[in-house]
Design brief:
By secondary structure, this protein is an alpha+beta fold. It has helices at 9-14, 26-36, 38-43, and strands at residues 2-6, 18-21, 48-51, 54-55, 67-71. Strands 2-1-5-3-4 form a 5-stranded mixed β-sheet.
Length: 77
């Protein structure tokens, strides 16, 4: 299963900082998260979602050792 790590507002919406997920692709993961956690439906499109440290398309397969990072937009100075 893929390990999904949430940061900042994404962590707050997910209710956890990390979890393992069984979805086969990034697109399936996005859909499942938006369905299971309706608050994330509006946040996910604005997040940088990295698979193995890189931005990839939704058809990217998620292997058992894959790390997915969900990073919301950050404000700073």
């Amino acid at each position: 299963m893929a390990r999904v790590r949430y940061f900042a507002a994404a962590e707050e919406m997910a209710g956890t900082s990390e979890e393992t997920r069984a979805e086969p692709t990034l697109g399936a993961l996005r859909t499942a998260l938006a369905t299971e956690r309706p608050g994330m439906a509006g946040l996910l499109p604005r997040c940088a979602v990295l698979v193995g440290g890189s931005r990839v398309d939704d058809d990217e397969p998620l292997a058992d050792d894959t790390v997915v990072d969900v990073l919301p937009p950050f404000a700073g100075g």
